[in-house]
Design a protein that fits this description.
432 residues
């Protein structure tokens, strides 16, 4: 019986002709060759946290969940080799055992390392780059089943292409990460007047290792989050405290509020203001990866755009204004984060210091008109979409936004000339 795959948001689903879970590089290569011989395309599923149809296929779908081991650790060099299916959380735990850590992470850590880097996943930190910048080397299986190793010294263009590839170059089977010594963060969450935060955006971003904020469209508050390195021992929350704050308040109570808003859209402005006022100050001191990540059980769909940092205030103000001006029912906040520029060919932060602005919509609510309106604003600021989140762009208008677009396509032609690793979404956003 055919197996159906569905993503985390329960919005993208497919029933591939073959669903395989290889446990080694050799098995991956064999599966790719078999698919090519049968004339089937190949896509790879990570943890399903992309909101786009990037995984969907009627051909062969590979899951690398069995390929989740740490292969080698060189603590002195700070280099760690892991299989592509390991999750960010499992990798963080393994790094911690060796006194190492990711330099930066996003607020969700259930993604596979290959999926997270392929889509340009990031955290926040004005001096820090996105997660794919930690890739020292990438091992992948090409369209003809060959195993290649890409790094800056031996194949600089291949390496810059493979770090953010949307799965269009081959099956990533292992990566070598550049880690940093393990560190402790002091995380402070607190509401502040948005009118005080916006004029100080550059100051706040530059003054902290990690700074971000959420803001509900109908609220005058910004729910700020600042994470700062400290020379202190970790002090993890107790189980009861963690459940109350992270599960009951952040997830269950918020989910209930969204359900009410979905049933009674006219109540959303009041609900947004109540949620903002009820978000009190919280301070945590713990290992970095525990501070970075937060449990997420409320289902939603999301768009996120990378724009030049200089436009951060203007863009967030315009996105907030959309909601009352156009009458959109939006129970979720907007999110703003900062990332340093990098040099991956398809990185949304490529070549420029970047502000990311994310817009969300609760499951079961109409999302397309709102997200299209947000996208129009972000495109006006030279925005590039997060590859794992919703957008409405095509290759024709994406190509001019990426100075190294043609260099990526040259690598794609070299590694997958037969376009084994494509699907309708990949063809739409990257070209045939």
């Amino acid at each position: 019986m055919a197996e159906t795959w569905t993503n985390w948001a329960r919005e993208q689903t497919c029933t591939p002709a073959a669903f395989e879970q290889p446990g080694s590089v050799a098995e991956v290569a064999s599966a790719v060759r078999a698919a090519a011989s049968a004339g089937r395309a190949v896509r790879v599923a990570g943890s399903g946290h992309s909101f786009t149809p990037c995984v969907l296929t009627s051909g062969t779908l590979l899951s690398l969940r069995r390929m989740d081991r740490v292969l080698d650790v060189d603590r002195d060099a700070g280099l760690v080799r892991v299989e592509a299916g390991i999750t960010l959380n499992a990798c963080s735990e393994a790094l911690a055992e060796h006194g190492l850590a990711f330099e930066n992470l996003g607020d969700i850590d259930v993604q596979s390392i290959a999926g997270a880097t392929a889509t340009g996943t990031h955290g926040t930190g004005a001096r820090l780059r996105n997660l794919s910048s930690a890739l020292h080397a990438v091992e992948l299986v090409t369209g003809d089943g060959e195993v290649v190793e890409l790094d800056e010294a031996t194949d600089p263009d291949g390496w810059r292409a493979a770090r953010v590839s949307v799965g269009a170059l081959g099956v990533v089977t292992a990566v070598t990460l550049r880690a940093v010594p393990a560190f402790t963060l002091r995380g402070v969450d607190e509401p502040r007047p948005l009118s005080e935060v916006l004029p100080r955006l550059d100051e706040l971003a530059d003054a902290h290792d990690h700074f971000e904020f959420f803001t509900f469209p109908h609220s005058p508050l910004a729910l700020t989050r600042t994470n700062t390195r400290v020379d202190e021992a970790p002090r993890p929350r107790g189980r009861v405290s963690a459940w109350l704050r992270e599960d009951l308040l952040t997830n269950h109570a918020f989910d209930l509020a969204c359900r009410v808003g979905r049933a009674r859209p006219s109540w959303i402005p009041r609900i947004n203001r109540v949620l903002s006022r009820g978000s009190g100050r919280s301070v945590r001191v713990d290992r970095s990866y525990r501070i970075f990540s937060s449990p997420r059980s409320v289902r939603f769909t999301e768009m996120e755009y990378a724009i030049p940092r200089a436009h951060a205030r203007e863009a967030i103000e315009a996105a907030r204004a959309l909601v009352p001006d156009r009458g959109f029912a939006v129970p979720f906040p907007l999110e703003l984060r900062f990332v340093a520029g990098d040099d991956a060919f398809l990185s949304p932060a490529g070549g420029r210091d970047t502000c990311y602005i994310a817009a969300h919509m609760y499951e079961g609510m109409e999302w397309e008109p709102y997200l299209r309106a947000v996208e129009e604003i972000m495109v006006g600021f030279g925005g590039r979409p997060h590859w794992g989140k919703r957008h409405f762009r095509t290759a024709a208008d994406l190509a001019p936004a990426y100075p190294d677009w043609d260099r990526f396509q040259a690598v794609r032609d070299r590694l997958d000339p037969q376009r084994t690793f494509t699907n309708p979404y990949v063809a739409e956003v990257l070209g045939p």
